[in-house]
Amino acid sequence: MSGWQNKPFKMEVKEGDRLVLCSCGLSKKGPFCDGAHSREGTGKQPYFITIEEDKTIFICGCCQSSKAPFCDGGHKLLKEK
Ligand code: FES
């Protein structure tokens, strides 16, 4: 079972947190990288993000965002199909 879903992942993050987020869509621990990009030879690399301030972020859960790894609202169009 993957962690992907047709809505964003809401996360409370703190200054200094480091996230390694999947960019290939193959991780079974979506939205976090599980190394599948390497095992599957995708040629992609995960997003390495360091949080600069305490805040709430919305990470794309549907792998369709044009602002990946952040949500751009595109999941709403998927539900309408
Ligand atoms: S598993 Fe997708 S980028 Fe690592």
TrEMBL record:
GO molecular function: 2 iron, 2 sulfur cluster binding; metal ion binding
GO cellular component: cytoplasm
SMART domains, per the entry: ZnF_CDGSH
Alphabetized Gene3D superfamilies for the sequence: CDGSH iron-sulfur domain, mitoNEET-type (3.40.5.90)
Iron-binding zinc finger CDGSH type domain span: 6-43, 44-81
Domain of life: Bacteria
Keywords annotated in UniProt: 2Fe-2S, Iron, Iron-sulfur, Metal-binding
PANTHER family tied to this protein: CDGSH IRON SULFUR DOMAIN PROTEIN HOMOLOG, CDGSH IRON-SULFUR DOMAIN-CONTAINING PROTEIN 3, MITOCHONDRIAL
Name the record gives this protein: Glutamate synthase
